[in-house]
Structure to design on (305 residues):
């Protein structure tokens, strides 16, 4: 073999070995310390009242940590005096903190939601937009978990919240953010994953045709599993026990393969429960579905422990 051929072969082998090493490190790394380091310590809370009704008051909180991370949180609590359970909602990618506008008021819970910082149209129909979306979503997600942790700290420190009764609810995309946050915040007593929390690869593969993705479904799933390794639920769910987890899945939800959720559920420790319901997948414009799903979730939250 000529000299340039040997050099090309050596460069190819080196690049392949480097890529394989990075993928192994990336997929096996413990991202808990990474998320906690990014969260840092909460050092500033700016609070602004944005709505008052006969039953509840809604405030907007701007949080900042000593790492420079900022988070926008909406918090709604009862007007009556007392200390109430606190619930952090992490919902769809396009909904974020606005979810409080889509659910009914509660006079027995303090509810909070954190904005993800995502305001883009999701487009993966070409290789260029696919790569751009994957990179952007990865960056947003890596910041989303620390932001949820900041939101939990602000929720727990609110004067109307009983910090010993904290719950986290993850819906759709939010389930993949809520699970690590619940694991990493020891004050969380309960986690509910609704229409989300299945294995990432099969879930992305099931959605790729609907998104008209630029790559085949199986390739999209494999790519997502590698890129979003920090959020794979099967690596987090076993760390939640002995705290309670509830999975809520729908037989009508074609975007979330039931078997992918069941495999994650099988890895969860006790106490755990699985609830089937019959609703299509929740979406930012599906007000009726969001309201119906909220009723199911709130009913679970109000059950005695």
């Amino acid at each position: 073999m000529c000299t340039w051929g040997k050099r090309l072969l050596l460069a190819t082998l080196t690049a392949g070995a480097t890529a394989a090493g990075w993928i192994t490190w990336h997929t096996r790394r413990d991202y808990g310390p990474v998320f906690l380091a990014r969260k840092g310590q909460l050092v500033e809370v700016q609070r602004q009242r944005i709505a008052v009704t006969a039953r509840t008051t809604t405030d907007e909180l701007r949080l900042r940590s000593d790492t420079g991370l900022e988070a926008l949180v909406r918090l709604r609590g009862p007007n009556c005096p007392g200390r109430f359970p606190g619930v952090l909602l992490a919902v769809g990618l396009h909904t974020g903190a606005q979810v409080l506008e889509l659910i009914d008021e509660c006079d027995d819970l303090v509810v909070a939601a954190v904005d993800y910082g995502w305001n883009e149209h999701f487009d993966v129909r070409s290789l260029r937009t696919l790569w751009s979306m994957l990179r952007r979503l990865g960056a947003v997600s890596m910041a989303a978990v620390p932001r949820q942790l900041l939101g939990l700290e602000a929720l727990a420190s609110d004067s109307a919240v009983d910090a010993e009764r904290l719950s986290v609810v993850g819906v759709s995309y939010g389930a993949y953010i809520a699970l690590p946050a619940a694991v990493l915040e020891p004050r969380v007593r309960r986690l509910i994953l609704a229409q989300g929390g299945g294995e990432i690869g099969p879930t992305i593969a099931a959605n790729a045709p609907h998104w008209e993705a630029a790559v085949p479904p199986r390739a999209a799933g494999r790519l997502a599993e590698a890129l979003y390794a920090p959020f794979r639920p099967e690596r987090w769910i076993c760390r939640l026990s002995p705290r309670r987890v509830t999975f809520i899945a729908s037989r009508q939800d074609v975007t979330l393969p039931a078997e992918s959720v069941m495999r994650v559920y099988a890895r969860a420790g006790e106490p755990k429960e699985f609830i089937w319901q019959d609703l299509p997948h929740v979406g930012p414009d599906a007000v009726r579905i969001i309201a119906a799903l909220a009723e199911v979730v709130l009913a679970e939250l109000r059950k005695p422990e």
About this structure: Residues 15-20 have pLDDT under 50 and may be disordered. Residues 97 and 258 are 28 Å apart (CA to CA).
